[in-house]
TrEMBL record:
TM annotation in the entry: 21-44, 50-71, 150-173, 179-196, 208-229
CDD domains recorded: Nodulin-21_like_1
Protein name: VIT family protein
Pfam family, one: VIT1
Amino acid sequence: MITIDNYLDSHYIHRSNWLRAAVLGANDGIISISSLAIGVAAASATREPIVLATVAGLVAGALSMAAGEYVSVSSQTDTEKADIEREIKELREMPEEELNILAQIYEKRGLKKETARQVAIELTEKDALGTHIRDELGINEISQANPIQAALASGAAFTVGGVLPLLVILFAPVLQMEYWLYGFTTIFLIILGATAAKTGGSSIKKAILRITIWGTIAMALSALVGYLFGVSV
């Protein structure tokens, strides 16, 4: 039986926070590690320096991605908390003005003036702060930031994404390594784009085109740098 409690469970929006962090991490892991390896491979005739640079980049990148995601999402959380504290103060010091603002919000959404006022009164009586957080600030359970979840999803996804080009480096021929990396990385990006689109319910074709085009540009520029500064290592 479909109820308001379970109706939204199947919607994709519930996945938006962790999916964004995971796709960003995996995409960054695949592209940055592949680009790094391609740049080194373009200037190297042996496998060891390519592996060393790749492993170092993988470890540093995963930690940096997790830390960066945590810091950025925590900043968003701090901003949300500051606005909530401000709302608490305003509800205490100017309740009538806050009620009027709430009524105006509902009126702009399409309710008649009298109905909007009545809705604002009833919701304020039930949960004034929760109502203002949701309808005035636009913060709800789905959109609310989660720093730990974002950091773990991003760091883990970067690691998984970065391991894929590392496997190519370990087993592909050193000769023309950059071409092997480019070919397999393109495949990895196609799989990532399709998986992300499938999970998020969006267009698979658009996701694949977007992720492969930008990945190709990044790898091409890295290979160019390797050739330009092609010191033998």
